[in-house]
Amino acid sequence: MLASATTRALRRAAALRVSAGPSTTTPASNATLGRRFASHGEHYNEPSGYLFGEKPTPPGQKRVKEDWENVWYYGFIGSMLFAGVMIYYKPDTSVQSWALKEAKERMEARGEKYRYEPESTPAASS
């Protein structure tokens, strides 16, 4: 009894979907209408042979820049310069530098020399 009621309900829902036509947005109706694209269909830009799709300007005329171009150029160049300065002046946080400094301090505290200085030997007399 329960199975037949479920089957009847599913048949009614399918009939409603078919009779409602393509205006419904249920997944089943999308399957019957074909593939759905988020970009509202297929789109293809035919290659024109020009760099970035822009035709060259006639002789004597300047190319008109778009609004975003100067912002992009100055922002990109400025951020690269800023990154270069920051990398150049970054603090030395390597383990080797810390260990060398620590070793020098400990050797000085013990009274040892941390630089090699050859001892002077008396000149041999003949």
UniProtKB/TrEMBL annotation:
The lineage of its organism: Eukaryota, Fungi, Dikarya, Basidiomycota, Agaricomycotina. It is found in: Mitochondrion inner membrane. It holds the Pfam family ESSS. This is NADH dehydrogenase [ubiquinone] 1 beta subcomplex subunit 11, mitochondrial. Belongs to the complex I NDUFB11 subunit family. Accessory subunit of the mitochondrial membrane respiratory chain NADH dehydrogenase (Complex I), that is believed not to be involved in catalysis. Complex I functions in the transfer of electrons from NADH to the respiratory chain. The immediate electron acceptor for the enzyme is believed to be ubiquinone. Keywords: Electron transport, Membrane, Mitochondrion, Mitochondrion inner membrane, Respiratory chain, Transit peptide, Transmembrane, Transmembrane helix, Transport. Its main location: mitochondrion. It comes from the Eukaryota. InterPro entries: NADH_UbQ_OxRdtase_ESSS_su. Residues 37-60 are annotated as: Disordered. It comes from Ephemerocybe angulata. One of its GO terms (cellular component) is mitochondrial inner membrane. The keyword Electron transport applies.
